[in-house]
Write a structure and sequence with these properties.
Layout lengths: L3 H30 L3 H27 L19 H28 L3 H31 L3 H11 L11
Helix pairs in contact: 1-2, 1-3, 2-5, 3-4, 4-5
The protein binds hydroxy diiron-OXO moiety.
Length: 169
């Protein structure tokens, strides 16, 4: 049985991961309007990953005989004027999610929940990968500036990304 504080913190993270999926779905729609199909593919995979992250937490709460409480998902802001701006927001968002995961790990430590601390290791490592992959795209976008041909080359590269169902925990 999981303690109440850890249970509530994990439920909040389910919401944060679903919000991430929602945010990336909005970004996917933005790229669809621009006909940048590689960026669309990248965002589509990001949405699937976030759904998997939410599901991983959900399953873990269930496994520990906790209680699932699903709250409303916030509306994402739609305010992008360029692919660069989108990816600046993605990186900011992922850095924020990293801080949330670190806070969750703090709750596991405070409540001496060794099992949760171990489970959260997967998310800690995942955030390192998420930030690195986003930073890579962002760096390229910064170099591209307004070069349309270079943007199309990046679009082609992002079309190669594939989704692999993560094995969490
Ligand atoms: Fe769930 O990693 Fe992004 O937000």
């Amino acid at each position: 049985m999981i303690n109440e504080k850890m249970n509530a913190a994990l439920n909040n993270q389910v919401n944060a991961e679903l919000y991430s999926a929602y945010l990336y779905l909005s970004m996917q729609a933005y790229f669809q309007k621009m006909n940048l199909t590689g960026f669309v593919n990248w965002m589509n995979i990001q949405v699937q990953e976030e759904m998997a992250h939410a599901r991983g937490l959900y399953d873990y709460i269930q496994e520990r005989d906790g209680e699932i409480v699903l709250e409303a998902i916030k509306k994402p802001d739609l305010k992008w004027n360029s692919p660069l701006q989108v990816f600046e927001d993605v990186l900011k968002h992922e850095q924020y999610v990293t801080s949330l995961i670190n806070n969750l790990a703090d709750v596991a430590d405070e409540t001496k929940d060794r099992a949760a601390a171990l489970f959260l290791q997967w998310y800690i490592k995942e955030q390192v990968e998420e930030e690195a992959s986003v930073s890579g795209v962002l760096e390229t976008l910064r170099m591209i500036k307004s070069d349309a041909n270079a943007l199309l080359l990046l679009d082609r590269e992002l079309a190669q990304r594939t989704f692999t169902q993560p094995v969490i925990g």
